Each structure stands twice: as structure tokens, then as C-alpha cells.
Amino acid sequence: MTWKRISAASPRGKKQPLRMVTFAAAAAALVAGLTVAAAGGASAAPAAVAAPAAAGAAQAPTPCTAGTTVQTKDGPVCGLTANSITSYLDIPYAAPPVGKLRWEPPQPHSPWTTTFQATKAAAECPGVFGTGTSENCLNLKIEVPAGAKPGDNLPVMYEIHGGGFLGTALTNDGDNLVRSGKVVYVYVNYRLGILGFLADKALGPHSGDYGLQDQQAGLRWVQQNIARFGGNPGNVTIFGESAGGASTCDQVASPTAKGLFQKAISVSGFYNYQDNIVWSKADCKSTYFTEAQAQKAGAQFAKKVGCGTVTNVAACLRSVPAATLVKDGGQVYDPTAGGTIGPIVNGTTLTMSPAKAFATGHVNHVKLISDVGRDEFNGGVYANSPPYVVVADTPAQYQQLVQEQFGREAPAVERLYPLSQYQSPYTAYRTIMADSASVCPMLQTNQELSKYIPVYVDINTDADNPAGENLTLPLGAQHSGTNGLVHFPPSKLDPNQAALQNQLLAEWTYFAHTGNPSAPHTPAWALYSGGQHPVMLLQPADTSQTTPAAFIAAQHNCAFWNQVTHY
Questions:
Q1: 265 and 184 in contact (C-beta within 8 Å)?
Q2: Which CATH superfamily, name and number, covers 36-328?
Q3: What is the pTM assigned to this prediction?
Q4: Degrees (nearest 5) of the Cα angle 390, 168, 221?
Q5: Higher pLDDT, 559 or 28
């Protein structure tokens, strides 16, 4: 199995990462009493407390660049400067969620006095895919313009990665954003899958949603510390793709996220189906599991791992090795295999599904950009894995999948999307699912949300995006393509794609600065409101333009889909 490391949850096919990175284990433990001079130039504090021990092999960290030391609320950190950017790769924002802290809300990290050398790639949180994983994974990567200092008040762009809530789609290179828009970039790791979202009565009331709580803990760390790096804690934009796009919707809807950010960008956050054959239902449009439903699944999972009949179920669960928990929890292609593996309505972090919050105005009053790909489907899974059929390689599979997804409406769907109009069953099914599960729900959901907060809407129509997943398949303008292009190395783009990347970088960073994506030298982009509800159609070669939502809805059969689909 080959996993792509830059785009959203995408477990199949031969894929080329945007950035070839060897994911070393996270930074080694630092020796108590290490002088700050070795890490960046200042003298060591008396009665030194060791810098935090990070996950991974015990080897000397890379020495920091002189002059990069910053005093955080927990202790001093230093980083690396290269190519006009200073990076801090693995700053802990919470205590390691291990032992008794497994399945607990994130807790404060113990302070330290010796300088922590944040110079090694951080460990990813354990999931069904990923490398260099460790439960000691609650860390941030920060990138700032070299020389940034307190008082600069730079906007903060805080990325929440994708990966279907089951793994890490590693999109943690903020160089393009920092260079083009003079912003502070922050990337957060958060607990995943069964370790991040299990709910069980034994874990106490309102269990679950620990991954969302981690994202919020990282935002609170930003509130307390980012000014020392040159950032403005009062001007924070959260963004993410796929599960990160869904997480963005969750945070807009979460009462416990109030005041932690001012703007949000959700990329490809509409990807679940009526019959969720790939991922847990946890996107921007779906009705989430209730606390009671999640606890029932949790009790079944406890039984599955041998903890169902013991006196202290919580202690038993916390004693099970992480690898066993991940193996026995829900999986890609089999999301209900064990316990809840994505966000739920736990009664505190989320009091209702984001879709309901968006429809009723129970949201944080922030500004939002909402994006999908015109042709996206399956949340980035593009090949069958026997016995699982999730794409239509044959006419029989097309009919099978349409019947599974739409039941009695299947004949009407086949009449709207007859195989005779498509080059292959693959593209026919792709188009059905893009229209029904991504494009139309995104337009409708944001029309409701726009009554309560400012919303801008775009659809990526760029079918030749080199940041795509498997470019040998007819994927069209695919899942998470917008975020992929934002991160893509500019030197590898042709002039047409470079024009779109420059547009996106200008729009996103101008939005971070001002709350308005209509940056100079980009197409005018009005709010998704009024009679037309304009949608920005993202296209290469400086040809992007806005189009009324009604035109797009007609092209994608939204009148039909809005009547027959229920998520």
C-alpha cells in the first residue's frame, strides 16, 4: 500500500508526494542542564529543568541557528533559519496524552528552563497510516519570516491536516504562504482515529472529540505565545483540507472554540456519502453520531479488545498497546469496524453537527472561505481494494455502486448520468458522487450559513493540477487540489499553473490580513450572498472568474440531488 503524504486521505495508487521528505522520528530527548549557548547563544538558567523529551531515537538534535531563541510560556525554544524563513519544527503545546492522559482532554505541558531545540521533524500521531508515529505527538510546527519579532503583529495561518481523521496527510510546508503573504504559519498535530475520538461511558461524560480538543489546545497555545514569534493572536485564520476542512467546519460550530480564531478556510470538507463506504461520517454536511450512539460503539469496541467485562474498563483500555487499538478500530474502507474514529456530537466540544449549526446560526462569528473540487469523490480513495468496491472499473460496478448509494433512486440517477455519455464507468460514477456529495451540498450548506456569517465560496475546476494525487487516472479537478497547489513548489509549475498558485496565495494571505480574499491583481470575489450567490471558479492561466451559484447548480443537477440525498 502506497500512501501519498501531501494530499488528503488517499490510500491507494502509485502517488508522488509534493515534497519528498524522510520522516525521521521526532526530536530526541534533550539532556538536563544543556546550555542555551549550545542551542542559540544565551546562558543557561539556574536550577535548569530539562527541555521536553520528544518521541524518537535518542540522538543529538540539530543545532539551532543563532538568534532564534524565543521564550514561550513553558520555556525557551530555538529553531532553524534558511532561505529567509525561521522554522520551529516540533514545539509541544500539551502534555503527551499517554498513560492516564490517554482519552483525556489535552493537559498543560510541564515547563522547562533549558532551551528546547525544535529542529527535528515531529512525530505524527498514531493512525492507520503514517510514519514515525508516537502517542507523544501533540506538537506544533511554526514558520515565520526571518527576523520577525514581537510587535510585528503578523497574521497567523493555522493549518489542520487532512487524512480522514485516520492518518496524517502531511501538508506542513508553509514556505509559500510565509514568503508571499508575510504571515506566521502554524501546523498542528492532533490525535487521530480511535485514540482521538473514542467515546465510552467508562471514559466519563462527554468523552470523544479529543482530536478537536487538541486542535483547540494548539489555538490556545497560539493565543498565549505567538506574539513572541511576531504573530498577532487576535488575527488567526484556521485552514485545512479533507478532514482538516471538516475540522475547520467543526471549529466554526464548536462553542469551546469561541474567540480562538477570526477567519477560516475549509478545503474539500464535503466528502462523506449517504452510505459511508470509505470514511467515518464526519464532514461539513453530515449528521454526526450522537453521544449515545458513540458510547454504544465504544462499549462494543471495549469488548473487542478484551476490556468489556473488567471492573475498570477505562484502565483496561489505557493499558492496551496503541498499535492494537489502531488495528481493532475503524479503518479506511471499514469505518465502523470498532469505536468512533471521527468527530461526534459529544455535548460539549460539539453540541450539534456542523450542518445543523450552519443552518440555525449556532456558530462562531468568523469569516469563512469554503472550497470543493468540481470532480472530487471518495475523499481521495481512487482504487478498489478487494473485497471492497469503491470505484466503478466496470459497468457492473457502476450499477452496483449507484444502487448501494441511492437505492430506489438508482434508476433516476442512471438516467441523469447514463454510461453512454462518459468515456468510462469510472468517470460516470466520479461525476455522480462529485455532484451529489460535494458540489451541491456545499452550495446549499453555505447558502444557509451565509445568513449568519460572511462566506466566500469557490470551486476548483483545474483538472491539470500537478499537485493532484494519481495523475494517471481521470480524476479531473480532484479532492484537496486547492490546498495541494498552495503548498506546491513554485519552481515545478508551468506558467498556467503558476498563475493560479499566485492567485490562491494572494487571496488566502490577503484574507488572513483583511478578511477579504479580493487581493490586488486577482479577480473580484464577492460574498456568497444576495440574489446571485457568486462562486469563484478557480482556473489556471489567470482565467478564474465568479459565476452565479444557480448556473453551477443547474450544471450539476443540484435540484435533483438536494431532494433525494440525506446525510
A1: no
A2: Alpha/Beta hydrolase fold, catalytic domain (3.40.50.1820)
A3: 0.91
A4: 140
A5: 559
